[in-house]
Please model this.
Amino acid sequence: MAISGLQPLGYDLSGLGFSAMSRTWLLQRQYQWQLFMPHVINGVFGPAVSSFCQDARIGNYSVRQLSTIQYGAFQRFYAGLQGIQSVALTFRVPIDNTVLDFFHGWYHLMIDQNGYYFPKNNYTKQIYVSLYDRSGVESVRLTLKGVFPVNKPTVDMSYEATDILRIGVTLSVDKVESYSLIGRVRSTLSNVVGDVARKTVEMLGDAGGTVKQGIVSAAGNIL
Model:
């Protein structure tokens, strides 16, 4: 029986009691997503500005360079610092210019009228990006910490352009954390099964090693 929305990939689930789903995966398509900026800046509500965001590009964490240490006659390599440099957002500009007012006001939280920088905790914010699956349920939530704009938004003016006005904003970010409800449930179930296996082995003593392996193997197949 064919199931709508499932992609055949040669993966057999019949051994787990799902004969109708044999050799099928449920795959994620393009995400629906939403930016959420909860702060009020320059008298403008961040959630109202968030709705005008049309594009978000969040860089992957990457190791910038490898470091070396001398160990006897050999050199050993280890990973350097890992981080994300920036996040790029694109906004449509409404008639009331709330988007421009918001980010210009955010910039002024960084630098005073004399050109001096305020402390970093005065202007860094925390924003969120929620990714939704095809059923409309939140699949992944990204928390961007230590965020602030690295440039004022610029507006390209031309009488030749008739398209909707858009502006780009580049943000610096200290840390990006990912939260997945499904992943949290999976981790919880795995911990529960692991605790059961551990207690079973403790009760059975030395003879429990084989039993534990069977329990863990069965749990891995289920999860």
